[in-house]
Amino acid sequence: MLRYKQNLNLSVVCNLFLILAGFSSKISGEEVNQYKLKVEQRSRNIAVITIDQQVHLDYGLAYPMTYEFYIPNEGNEYSAFLRYRFSDDWIEMVEKTSNDFFNGIEAVRFDYIDSKAYVSVGFSSLSDSIYIMFEDGENQVEAIFDRISPYYDNRDAVVTSTADDWADWCHEKFIRTCRNFRAHNLWLSCAIVTNGVSADNWDDIQIQLDSGYVEAVAHSRTHPYVPYNDVEGEVAGSKEDIVENLELPAHNRYGENEYVYAWIAPYGEYDEQIDSMVSASKYLITRLYYGGDHGFSDWNEDLSKFDPIGVSMEVGPLWIGTTDTSELNDTFDEVVNIGGVYHVMCHPNILEWDQEYPWVHLEHISNRKNIWYVGYGHLQVYRFLQDVYPSQNLTAYENNKVMPASFILSQNYPNPFNPKTNFRIYSHKNTFINIAIYGLKGNHIRKIINKELSPGEYVMTWDGRDDLGRTTPAGIYFLSANDGHLLQTRKMVLIK
């Protein structure tokens, strides 16, 4: 396995300006759109993250994103500070380490070996901007923004859970399921059939939300078969019912506005009318009812949402479900090994808590420090900013822009990926650079470039093929870049 220790000189980054979406400028002779999300270095020591005002209002975006910064490797007592407006006082961020168990909170984690800071922070209704500053003791520190982490805190894999059919006929079973998932520190996104919930039971759902680890997602008003008699009422109306009857938690709020991010299709049935209404209702994702999906669906530019997607598997004795703990646990292990998303679903109405299998499986998948445990809707919000507005539309550095004082290889994006991924390199001078892809055992897979590059920033792509044009199998690969003085590697995960 290829390994390295980063050694960066970060003293000349005051003018660094990184756009994480389009901006009004020329790139390769083409016009691109105004930015949606950007990170810029406004002074020598302060990074500013700004979101488009309308995007902020449409989706809230309170769930913390993890922004990665290169930090000087001389220090070992760094602190990070946060504010939302220029006039606000700086607030020191909570520091966590890889030995801590935490999810979905605003925090900073420093990796002194790889000279990285992982800053997890969400947007606030106070402003459309986030200000970040680093200190080493009492001295301010210059840092270079690298990317948004693929997963929160740059975790290895994801676990998310959905539960279908919350209504009066299985109300108590849902409450028990929420409590049992919460006892394992597992998020459960509960799909509510809103016309099936009585006034008293809405109060009980609120208690579960307030107790934590529970997210409300929409599952129609009446759980109909396709075609719906009232598409707008079933899709948009069920979202309205949730907002009207519940006070959603902080990650689903922007001031007085509340957000429901996921639509769970009854019976897994779907058509174009429903798809259009999901878009008009500003859901981010539709979850269908089939197994074997361990990643993400594509973003639909026309409908401004992600395409529908299934789950990894169901726990329980129904349709795509299983009570075989070996099958359940092995599937989870396989997904974690490829760095994917393990999405387990259940029907609390038939989930058998008096049997051994749900307890064994929940114990197996829970409380791991390298796993991101997250509500299903919150996962889509994170990916929305991380993937829909990626750091691909980057202009070459102008003459008045100061480059980093060393050669830098960014992490590939997206990661995990299928079928292709992108990465950036920064060349601070005329440098002969060799970039290649290697397998897990160090075997050569693909030459990317082997030539001299002028100073500037370059965006490159790997399409998942080897030097002979053959498609490579799913698995772990290493992106390696060498400028003759410094070897840098990045771990990549190809999923199928």
The number of distinct β-strands equals 33
Oligomer status: single chain
Helix content: 10-25%
General shape: globular
- Rounded to the nearest angstrom, the radius of gyration is 23 Å
Structural classification: alpha+beta
Share in β-strands: 25-35%
Indicate the mean pLDDT.
86
How would you characterize the largest beta sheet? 7 strands, antiparallel
CATH topology of the largest domain: TIM Barrel
CATH superfamily of the largest domain: Glycoside hydrolase/deacetylase
How would you characterize the overall build of this protein?
With 496 residues, this protein is an alpha+beta fold. The protein has three domains: 1-154 and 389-399, no CATH class; 157-373, TIM Barrel, CATH 3.20.20; 407-496, Sandwich (Immunoglobulin-like), CATH 2.60.40.1930. The chain is 19% helix and 32% strand. The strands form nine sheets. Strands 1, 4, 5, 7, 8, 11 and 12 form a seven-stranded antiparallel beta sheet that branches. Strands 14, 15, 16, 23, 24, 25 and 26 form a seven-stranded parallel beta sheet that branches. A four-stranded antiparallel beta sheet has the order 9-10-6-13. A hairpin with a 4-residue loop joins strand 9 and strand 10 (116-121). Helix 2 (171-183) runs parallel beside helix 3, helix 4 packs parallel to helix 5 (272-280) and helix 6 packs parallel to helix 7 (357-365). The longest helix has 15 residues, at 231-245. It is globular. The two termini are 23 Å apart. Residues 1-34 and 390-405 have low confidence and may be disordered.
Topology diagram in text:
Elements lengths: L16 E3 L6 E2 L2 E2 L5 E5 L4 E6 L1 H7 L5 E6 L7 E6 L7 E2 L14 E5 L4 E6 L7 E8 L2 E3 L2 E5 L8 E10 L4 H13 L4 E5 L6 H13 L2 E5 L12 H15 L7 E2 L2 E2 L3 E3 L7 H9 L4 E3 L11 E2 L4 E2 L6 E3 L5 E2 L2 H13 L3 E6 L10 H9 L5 E3 L2 H13 L19 E2 L11 E7 L3 E9 L4 E10 L2 E7 L12 E8 L4 E8 L2
